[in-house]
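Inputs:
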Amino acid sequence: MRLPREQTQEALEKEGLGSATDLLESNFMNQPHLSWERIRADFPILDQQVHGQPLVYFDNAATSQKPRAVLDALRHYYEHDNSNVHRGMHALSMRATDAYEAARVKLARYLNAASAEEIVFTRGATESINLVAQTWGIQNLRAGDVILLTEMEHHSNLVPWQLLAERTGATLRFLPINARHELALERLEELLTPEVKLFSFVHISNSLGTINPAAELCAAARKVGATTLVDAAQSAGHMPLDVQELGCDFLVLSGHKMCGPTGIGALYGKKALLDAMPPWQGGGEMILQVSYQKSTWKPAPYRFEAGTPNIAGAIALGAAVDYIESIGRAAIFEHDCALAQYAQKRLGEIPGLRVLGPPLGGARGGLVSFVMDQAHAHDVVTLADQAGIALRGGHHCTQPLMQKLGLESSARASFYFYNTKAEVDRLIDVLAKGQSHASATFSLPLGELYEAVVTDHATRPRNFGELGEGAVHVHGDNPSCGDTIDLHVQLTPEKVENIKFTGHGCTICMTSASLMTLKLKGKPLPEAKRLARLFHDHVAASPDAETGPGPRELGDLNVLGGVRQFPQRVKCAMLAWRAFEQALEEADAGVTEGAISTEEPQA
Ligand code: C6P
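Outputs:
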């Protein structure tokens, strides 16, 4: 099968980018019956303003929006058929069971599975991978075996295998990426040795956008007898998928990334494999016979669906499949790829901006991640949010990949068929303005004083360094953003003798840490504690609270008061301060090492 991306690529190469953008200008993928207006009208959520601007939703790789057909399916189920499945003899239960099983059949057809028995409903891609690891993995792997992954895996396709390796003594091996941010396929033969029992890889990278040649990888694995798992979280809703053509043994997907609700997804597994796998969770529904001492299991897929499943979710996922099919996956793929190529080209025009993933015209799905000189991804995302544009910033649950690339985070725009070229243009305008707005640092629009202070401290942090023995050290991090601070505090019973920090993070985090050390050094302890409280109250006040000049004692720290307008960024401003408060607690307890995380529930 010739994928539309290949055609797009061919067109790009032959005619330059024009052809891809013409595609976007035309009626929806040249199908006059599918106008933009009609498609967008199917998504009620898109018709809203955010911060006074029409919403541009570019966070589809995190989760897609849901069309009315899916919302209606959920409502219909709860209003008419709500009942438990496979148990009842009454009309509602039979209707619910029929609809639930019909969704399984739809998904099987969607993936071209040999039968519906090859589809297990799960909570999503993550749960599907864990299911395989804990059943097939425990049964089939032992010390000396190798699990081959790639360097671009999402944590969901890494951590379950790390847990399995710990339990079985198997080891992990990684197919590297090259300078084009594609898989180094020339290394495959050397790494895909007979010890490899499983090759599990991502189809479209959620961080780079790279499309991996899944059929080719599966064929190579087959040659050495390795079982394959394709993480199709980012491809299942965006491109034609045929598990028989791919030749994979397992494939996982999440419903919420393909127009369906959250909490539902699927594992495709070849029937012979599923039949041979033991259950992973016990309970109702998955059994044939239960005695006090022993039980027997139903055949697959029911063996893997213990307890009451997400019935409404599965039915709504079936509706999502119908909806996607009504548009056509080839057309969706063509559109998403063309939009990503266009975005890549336009983003590349912004000075100091670097796009991750394959170069223009390369094998890229519908997303573009990028980094900007002097601009932390969170500042980029916050700035875009102020303009009504939803991006994602961070490590995208691919921390090892980010480390490999020497990055803490990136900003990401991820597209779907309801996105338009005009929306990409809006993003470009916002980013270009953000870049030219501040000379040295890309900063939030919080006024000239903010800009001056932040530029100064983020680029030239004060008291940057470590303190030797006797100092209390607290490591603080914002796991979701990647900000880290290592705070070193030398305390006497009376005062903060010395205070230094190292770390990396967004401009708000670094500026706050730098200013904090200047403010607290030499302060008597009661005064330091009072300032910490004052700063917290200043920054974490309600966004609608009077801004005013702020408490005089805070001095330059007052400029960070504006951060309260961006509640999701308050934790960046507070990270160093929370580390300081922790350091005081550690000192009281006679301890010199501590850690805090902003992800922990706070009192
Ligand atoms: N990526 C993103 O913003 P779940 O959470 O189970 O629905 O999907 C996990 C997952 C697995 N593999 C890939 C390639 C993924 O992209 C994801 C989810 C989201 O990129 C959330 S981190």
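Remarks. The mean pLDDT is 91. The chain has 20 helices and 21 strands.
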